[in-house]
Amino acid sequence: MEEAGADIEVTSVGIVGWEGSPAASESVQAAAERGIDISRHVARRLEPRHVADAAVVICMAGEHRQAVERLVPEAAGKTFTLKELVRLLEALPATPGPSFAERVTRADELRRSGFAGNPMDEDVADPLGASLDAFRAVAWELDEWCRRLSPGLIPAASKQEVS
What we know:
The structure is a single chain. This protein has a single domain (8-162), classed as Response regulator (Rossmann fold, 3-Layer(aba) Sandwich). The protein is 48% helix and 6% strand. It contains 7 helices and 4 strands; from the N terminus they run E-E-H-H-E-H-E-H-H-H-H. It has helices spanning 25-33, 48-53, 62-71, 82-91, 100-112, 132-153, 155-162; strands at residues 2-3, 6-7, 57-59, 79-81. Strands 1-2 form a two-stranded antiparallel ribbon. Helix 1 packs across helix 6, helix 4 (82-91) runs parallel beside helix 6 and helix 6 packs across helix 7. The radius of gyration is 16 Å and the shape is globular.
């Protein structure tokens, strides 16, 4: 995606797991069923440089957000769970023109002002060790939340997708 000529790169790292391990076969299959190829994914452990390099850090669970904040405390303002960030962005007034970074900043300001969102539904379940159907359910959930995330962060890209 591009915003005002800037490339947006999405990467994945984790706070637990085995460095260099492939995605679980169930993850690969569930993603493939949704048209996404993650067969070459290789796990990487979160390091402070990953957080420093990121414009926004999106976590799957509150415990992951807390781990990022412990590792790099100054990144708290750009670290969210996926569901938290989507809800914050959807609650912001629709104003044209804010950049990607400004939208992240506004989401954090709204969060700090007391916006509660839905704290009882903040995490995406980790299906590791569960059935293929559990992986499919998580893949569906991630797809739905990411579809909602895109227009909140990059409205122009979302309009192009609809055209």
